[in-house]
């Protein structure tokens, strides 16, 4: 899950390479062999490109593509991701010039929908496999015209990863309450271990961390319901409390955290210099590959005083077909594959993430646990699902304001004022 600029640039994916086409059209008439019978000529391969911001998924998607090619040997598919912070701009530029990848991975909700509304994507309502998904799931890639433009492939969730070996070494039990979490952080700090791998250099880390830790303070699903219906706004004390909580955690962050990036955070956790990390499930596969011996597990985010633990969830990425593709038929065939249980199983086991395909179970116990949490104690990632519009988006406004707070240039109240000011420029509560 990682981000860049916005609006039409809230757009997604991939490479400046133009939509690929077949090297040579297949012959319409087969030549005769020496017996005068038509001989079978090998069908010419069609090459498709897949654009994405998920550079870390390259190995997994190459395995998935190989599985697809076993039944579709005449299609060559190149998974060609672009650095996440450059993805939006690169794809936007390509689409405006009538090129871009054949298959485009859409950022979820407003960002991907903006591409559909701009006319760059092929409607997918004819794809029969979409019927296995709920309307809420498909909403992540449904245009304003009501048509579906992307196949949601994975659910994402944020929870707290922790180092089992360090917890055992310092007699820390898996936290069940917010007080337990703070006690665990204190114990790690006292033993010269960084409690949380965290950095504020990249804005998306801040909205993601707040999206995970904040619900216990602002009231999770109940608050989301109230703010989207206009019963409250971001100046609500409960939301202010969630920003103050973010400020209060600084003593548990690494030294010089304002200059720490996602790569640095991951390295701190994988090399066992940090005991915990608030992060999305997509990092599981990456970290296991970096350090197969790492003893880690996850727990949901505990809430303060009497609240319920939560994980924050959303549809993270859908695949669509570029309207300018010269190979739409083959691209649509691959899109249909993305709705199958075979693909869902590959997602669960190769990407190590919960699949959008019902009935898929992962082979990894941590992925199974993450899926179980997502199905039982989830709350929506509010700033992705509901507040990712505006120019700049309200999500980006939150990120920039939090960065200012961590640089001691803004107070939690300043952050709230800016977020509300952004929302006021575009947000209309449901039914009003």
From TrEMBL:
Key word Transit peptide present: no
Annotated region described as Disordered, given as residue ranges: 20-46
InterPro entries the record matches: Bact_solute-bd_prot1, SBP
Name listed for the protein in its UniProt record: ABC transporter substrate-binding protein
Transmembrane regions: none
Endpoints of the signal sequence: 1-26
UniProt biased composition (Polar residues): 37-46
Keywords: Signal
């Amino acid at each position: 899950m990682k981000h860049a600029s916005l609006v039409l640039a809230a757009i997604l994916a991939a490479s400046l390479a133009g939509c690929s086409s077949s090297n040579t059209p297949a012959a319409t008439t087969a030549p005769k062999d020496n017996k005068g019978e038509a001989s079978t000529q090998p069908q010419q391969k069609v090459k498709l490109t897949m654009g994405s911001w998920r550079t870390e998924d390259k190995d997994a998607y190459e395995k998935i593509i190989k599985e697809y090619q076993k039944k579709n040997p005449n299609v060559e598919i190149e998974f060609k991701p672009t650095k996440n912070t450059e993805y939006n701009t690169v794809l936007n530029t390509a689409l405006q010039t009538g090129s871009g990848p054949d298959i485009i991975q859409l950022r979820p909700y407003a960002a991907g929908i903006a591409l559909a509304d701009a006319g760059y994507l092929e409607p997918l309502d004819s794809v029969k496999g979409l019927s296995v998904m709920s309307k809420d799931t498909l909403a992540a890639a449904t245009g304003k015209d009501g048509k579906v433009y992307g196949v949601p492939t994975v659910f994402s969730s944020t929870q707290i990863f922790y180092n089992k070996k360090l917890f055992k070494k310092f007699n820390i039990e898996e936290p069940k309450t917010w007080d337990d979490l703070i006690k665990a952080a204190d114990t790690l700090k006292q033993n010269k271990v960084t409690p949380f791998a965290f950095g504020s250099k990249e804005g998306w880390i801040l909205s993601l961390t707040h999206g995970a830790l904040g619900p216990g303070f602002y009231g999770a699903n109940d608050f989301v319901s109230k703010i989207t219906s206009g019963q409250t706004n971001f100046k609500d004390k409960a939301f202010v409390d969630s920003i103050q909580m973010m400020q209060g955690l600084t003593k548990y962050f690494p030294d010089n955290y304002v200059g720490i990036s996602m790569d640095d955070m991951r390295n701190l956790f994988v090399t066992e210099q940090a005991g915990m990390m608030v992060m999305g499930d997509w990092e599981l596969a990456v970290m296991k590959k970096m350090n197969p011996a790492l003893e880690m597990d996850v727990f949901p985010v505990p809430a303060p005083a009497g609240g319920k633990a939560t994980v924050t969830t959303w549809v993270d990425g859908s695949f669509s077909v570029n309207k300018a593709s010269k190979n739409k038929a083959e691209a649509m065939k691959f899109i249909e594959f993305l709705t199958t249980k075979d693909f869902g199983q590959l997602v669960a086991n190769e990407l190590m993430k919960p699949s959008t395909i019902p009935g898929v179970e992962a082979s990894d116990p941590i992925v199974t646990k993450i899926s179980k949490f997502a199905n039982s104690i989830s709350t929506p990632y509010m700033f992705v699902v509901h507040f990712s519009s505006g120019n700049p988006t309200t999500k980006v406004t939150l990120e920039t304001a939090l960065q200012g707070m961590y640089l001691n240039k803004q107070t939690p109240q300043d952050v709230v004022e800016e977020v509300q000011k952004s929302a006021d420029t575009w947000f209309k509560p449901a039914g009003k």
